[in-house]
Structures are given as structure tokens and as C-alpha cells.
TrEMBL record:
Occurrences of domain FAS1 (ranges): 38-173, 177-324
Signal peptide (residue range): 1-18
Organism whose genome encodes this protein: Flaviaesturariibacter aridisoli
One Gene Ontology cellular component: extracellular space
Glycosyltransferase as UniProt keyword: no
Gene3D superfamilies per UniProt: FAS1 domain
Name recorded for this polypeptide: Fasciclin domain-containing protein
InterPro entries associated with the record: Adhesion/Biosynth-related (IPR050904), FAS1_dom_sf (IPR036378), FAS1_domain (IPR000782)
Length: 326
């Protein structure tokens, strides 16, 4: 299952990144002088700090030259193990299209030099990366003792280079793809969920960019365990009942307290563990003690979150292993 998820992440990322088509490097500069006593640029510093895959990706994408300009950048660099967990190995970097790599890397970079404690603590404070997409920064604690970027934990901070600062993170920040339908279509493990959304007549609601939703999507195995053996069974279900069931798996922005109003895995753990959240259906689900499970009112057992923080244009999706029963 882990291997399948890794391959899925990589293939989905390639499709989503290519679709964005942002091939050129951002030439915006802040004209901030290099800090004294730091001689090496970002690519060199990244490699010397164990960020081999990230450094190789910069060079293959031709973006190491971007950092030769007089200017400052803030880089959220996934560790080698984070890249590997996402299916992006050294060999994958060598074979990915250059434009795909550029878009992936730009998703991890902000213009300007920002040390970690200079970030707004949020939760989910909004920053714009070089793709002109949104990154959500959350500090946990007062003052913050941990930071998360789109739910990915910052593991090492403030690594200085002569043209920026690097923060190591424990996950890859894949760009948000298209709408909900497009994103779910790239995930074979959610084909029954996708069919259920269509059968229930909720496609437009899920795709509506005005709906800032946190979605707990049951896997195919979860639907099968709940009595929906295949797409034919989904299509035979009463659409009204199916609509109510699906809406019970969606938490709207109005049920959340933080800015950005979507709940990443880090939010579930730090902010909503052991709490109830009202759903679009109208009744509540309960987030477990560690923030890694959710439970419906009439569910026999809690549902485990098996894959988290899948961004789409107006929300975030978490895959769960049991259907929530209202």
C-alpha cells in the first residue's frame, strides 16, 4: 500500500505540476545585501546540510543560477527522506521534465529572507510562494515551539546562505492541482468516493471555490466495508441518503477557528484533538486524541487518517479507512 501511495503521489504531482505550466524562473529581487560571513549560495548550503535531492533538483532545473542574482529567498527544503517518501528519488529527479521540477521547487520558495520566528504564527498564516500559490504557516505554542507549512513540520530552521535562508521540512509541498474532481480523479483509491459524489449530485458543491472545505474521504476499501461493493452499488444507492452521508464527511470553514479555515493534519493534532467539529450535513464528528482519527456519532470505531494534506484549489482532503456514520 505504501509503495502504491508513493507512486500515486509522484504521478499525481507530475500531472498537476505540468498542468500549471509555470516554466520560467521568477526574476523578482529584493536587493537585500548578502549577510556577512556567509559565502555559499543556497544550492551549496543545501547540499552541505544533507539536502542532496533538493540541491540536485535545483541544479537540474537550472535554478541554482537563479540564486546567483543579488536577492534573498526563503526556502522550505524537504529532507531526502521526505522526497523519498513522496516517491521522488535521485533517479526520479534525473528523469522528471525540467519544467515540472521548476514548478515543484518554486512551490517551496518565498521571495525575501525570513527567519522562522519572523513568520506570523497563524494558525495558517498566508504566504505567497514563487508559483504565486498559497502556503499556510502555523506556529504551535506561545511563543511557538514548532512550525508547520501546509501541515509539514519544520525540522531544522534558519540555515543561512549568502542569498537566502533554508528551513528543512518533513514533507514535500505538492502544488494544489485543479478542482476537487480533478484531484480525486488522480487517486484510484478514491474512485468509489468520486462516484458517490457524482451520484449524490454534489459535484458542483465540491468544486465550488467558495467552499473552503476539509474533506475526510473514505477509501475504496472503506466504502466496500460499508456495503458499497463497486460503482454499480454506488449508482444503485438513494442519492438523497448518499448526499447526507457524504456531507457528513465535510467540515466547512465556519466550523474552524484558524485563518485559512481548512484543517491540515498539524491543525487536527495541535488544535482540534479531542474536539467535535460540525459538518456540512449539520451534525458533528469527533477528532481523536492524537488528531490522527475521526469518528462519527454512530460509528462502531474511529476512522484512521491514512493519507493527509492533499490540497485542491479550495480545500484539503484526508483519506480515511472507515466510512463515518452519522
Amino acid at each position: 500500500m505504501k509503495m502504491k501511495l508513493n507512486k500515486l503521489f509522484l504521478s499525481a504531482s507530475i500531472v498537476l505540476l505540468a498542468a500549471l505550466g509555470l516554466a520560467s524562473c521568477d526574476k523578482r529581487e529584493n536587493n537585500i545585501a548578502y549577510p556577512p560571513g556567509v559565502a555559499a549560495n543556497v544550492a551549496t548550503v543545501a547540499e552541505s546540510n544533507g539536502l542532496t535531492i533538493f540541491a540536485n533538483a535545483l541544479r537540474r532545473a537550472g535554478m541554482d543560477s537563479t540564486f546567483s542574482y543579488l536577492g534573498q529567498y526563503t526556502i522550505f527544503a524537504p529532507t531526502d527522506s521526505a522526497f523519498a517518501a513522496a516517491g521522488i528519488t535521485a533517479s526520479a529527479v534525473s528523469s522528471l521534465p525540467v519544467e515540472t521540477l521548476r514548478t515543484l521547487l518554486r512551490n517551496h520558495i518565498l521571495s525575501g529572507r525570513t527567519t522562522l520566528m519572523s513568520f506570523l504564527p497563524g494558525p495558517n498564516a498566508v504566504y505567497t510562494n514563487l508559483n504565486r500559490d498559497t502556503l499556510f504557516v502555523t506556529g504551535v505554542g506561545t511563543p511557538p515551539t514548532a512550525f508547520y507549512i501546509n501541515g509539514r513540520k519544520v525540522t531544522q530552521t534558519d540555515i543561512s546562505a549568502n542569498n537566502g535562508v533554508i528551513h528543512k521540512i518533513a514533507g514535500v509541498l505538492a502544488p494544489a492541482g485543479g478542482n476537487f474532481t480533478t484531484t480525486v480523479a488522480l487517486m484510484p483509491n478514491l474512485s468509489l468516493f468520486a462516484a458517490a459524489v457524482q451520484r449524490a449530485g454534489l459535484t458542483n458543491s465540491f468544486n465550488n471555490v467558495g467552499n473552503r472545505w476539509t474533506v475526510f474521504a473514505p477509501s475504496n476499501a472503506a466504502f466496500q466495508a460499508a456495503g458499497y461493493a463497486d460503482v454499480n452499488a454506488i449508482n444503485a444507492a438513494d442519492p438523497t441518503a448518499l448526499s447526507a452521508l457524504l456531507r457528513y464527511h465535510v467540515v466547512p470553514a465556519t466550523s474552524l477557528t484558524q485563518s485559512g479555515r481548512i484543517a491540515f493534519s498539524s491543525d487536527l493534532t495541535a488544535r482540534y484533538a479531542n474536539t467535535t467539529l460540525n459538518t456540512v450535513q449539520g451534525t458533528a464528528i469527533t477528532v481523536g486524541a492524537g488528531g490522527t482519527t475521526v469518528k462519527g456519532t454512530n460509528s462502531a470505531a474511529a476512522s484512521n487518517i491514512t493519507t493527509s494534506d492533499i490540497l485542491y484549489r479550495s480545500g484539503v482532503l484526508h483519506v480515511i479507512d472507515r466510512v463515518l456514520m452519522p
